[in-house]
Design a protein that fits this description.
By secondary structure, this protein is mainly α. It has a single domain, classed as 2-Layer Sandwich (Metal Transport, Frataxin, Chain A). The protein is 50% helix and 10% strand. The chain is built from three helices and three strands. It has a three-stranded antiparallel β-sheet, with helices on one face. A hairpin with an 8-residue loop joins β2 and β3. The radius of gyration is 14 Å and the shape is globular. It starts with a helix and ends in a 6-residue tail after the last helix.
Protein backbone atom coordinates (compact mmCIF):
# COMPACT_ATOMS: atom_id res chain seq x y z
CA UNK A 1 0.00 0.00 0.00
CA UNK A 2 1.25 3.47 -0.82
CA UNK A 3 -0.08 7.01 -0.43
CA UNK A 4 -1.45 7.19 -3.99
CA UNK A 5 -3.44 3.95 -3.63
CA UNK A 6 -4.65 5.01 -0.19
CA UNK A 7 -5.99 8.31 -1.55
CA UNK A 8 -7.75 6.44 -4.35
CA UNK A 9 -9.43 4.15 -1.79
CA UNK A 10 -10.59 7.17 0.26
CA UNK A 11 -12.25 8.60 -2.88
CA UNK A 12 -13.75 5.21 -3.68
CA UNK A 13 -15.38 4.94 -0.23
CA UNK A 14 -16.78 8.46 -0.49
CA UNK A 15 -18.29 7.60 -3.87
CA UNK A 16 -19.80 4.40 -2.49
CA UNK A 17 -21.67 6.31 0.20
CA UNK A 18 -24.00 7.94 -2.33
CA UNK A 19 -24.84 4.89 -4.47
CA UNK A 20 -26.54 1.57 -3.94
CA UNK A 21 -24.08 -1.28 -3.48
CA UNK A 22 -23.99 -5.02 -3.70
CA UNK A 23 -21.99 -7.08 -1.22
CA UNK A 24 -19.44 -8.11 -3.87
CA UNK A 25 -18.39 -4.47 -4.36
CA UNK A 26 -17.68 -4.00 -0.66
CA UNK A 27 -15.97 -7.40 -0.48
CA UNK A 28 -13.58 -6.28 -3.25
CA UNK A 29 -12.80 -3.12 -1.28
CA UNK A 30 -12.22 -5.15 1.90
CA UNK A 31 -9.78 -7.36 -0.01
CA UNK A 32 -7.89 -4.30 -1.31
CA UNK A 33 -7.53 -3.13 2.28
CA UNK A 34 -5.85 -6.37 3.31
CA UNK A 35 -8.84 -8.26 4.69
CA UNK A 36 -9.47 -11.91 3.98
CA UNK A 37 -12.60 -13.98 4.33
CA UNK A 38 -12.68 -16.36 7.30
CA UNK A 39 -15.15 -19.06 8.27
CA UNK A 40 -16.77 -17.64 11.36
CA UNK A 41 -20.31 -16.67 12.25
CA UNK A 42 -23.50 -16.67 10.25
CA UNK A 43 -22.59 -14.03 7.66
CA UNK A 44 -19.40 -13.91 5.55
CA UNK A 45 -16.74 -12.44 7.85
CA UNK A 46 -13.59 -10.57 6.85
CA UNK A 47 -10.55 -10.09 9.11
CA UNK A 48 -7.57 -7.82 8.59
CA UNK A 49 -4.27 -9.58 7.85
CA UNK A 50 -2.29 -6.39 8.39
CA UNK A 51 -3.84 -4.95 11.55
CA UNK A 52 -4.69 -7.40 14.30
CA UNK A 53 -6.42 -4.72 16.39
CA UNK A 54 -9.21 -4.11 13.86
CA UNK A 55 -12.55 -5.80 14.47
CA UNK A 56 -13.77 -8.55 12.18
CA UNK A 57 -16.23 -7.28 9.58
CA UNK A 58 -19.39 -9.08 8.49
CA UNK A 59 -20.55 -8.31 4.97
CA UNK A 60 -23.99 -9.85 4.41
CA UNK A 61 -24.45 -11.39 0.98
CA UNK A 62 -28.09 -12.05 0.14
CA UNK A 63 -28.10 -13.35 -3.40
CA UNK A 64 -26.87 -10.24 -5.18
CA UNK A 65 -29.40 -7.83 -3.67
CA UNK A 66 -28.35 -4.29 -2.79
CA UNK A 67 -27.29 -3.71 0.80
CA UNK A 68 -29.64 -1.59 2.89
CA UNK A 69 -28.44 1.99 3.38
CA UNK A 70 -27.82 1.53 7.11
CA UNK A 71 -25.80 -1.66 6.67
CA UNK A 72 -23.82 -0.08 3.83
CA UNK A 73 -22.94 2.99 5.90
CA UNK A 74 -21.95 0.88 8.91
CA UNK A 75 -19.62 -1.31 6.82
CA UNK A 76 -18.06 1.70 5.09
CA UNK A 77 -17.47 3.35 8.49
CA UNK A 78 -15.62 0.26 9.64
CA UNK A 79 -13.57 0.13 6.42
CA UNK A 80 -12.61 3.75 7.04
CA UNK A 81 -10.91 2.50 10.23
CA UNK A 82 -8.78 0.32 7.94
CA UNK A 83 -7.88 3.37 5.87
CA UNK A 84 -6.92 5.29 9.01
CA UNK A 85 -4.67 2.42 10.11
CA UNK A 86 -3.02 2.33 6.67
CA UNK A 87 -2.58 6.12 6.75
CA UNK A 88 -0.83 5.90 10.11
CA UNK A 89 1.46 3.13 8.87
CA UNK A 90 2.37 5.06 5.70
CA UNK A 91 2.96 8.27 7.68
CA UNK A 92 5.22 6.36 10.06
CA UNK A 93 7.26 4.98 7.16
CA UNK A 94 7.50 8.40 5.49
CA UNK A 95 8.54 10.31 8.59
CA UNK A 96 10.04 7.62 10.76
CA UNK A 97 7.83 8.88 13.61
CA UNK A 98 5.24 6.66 15.20
CA UNK A 99 1.79 8.28 15.01
CA UNK A 100 -0.04 6.36 17.74
CA UNK A 101 0.34 3.15 19.64
Amino acid sequence: MNRKKLNKLWRQIEGMRSTSLKAIEIQRLAKQLGRERVKRGKEPTWESREFQGLRALSIPDHGGKDLSPGVKQSILNQLEDDLISWDERITQKETGVRVRK
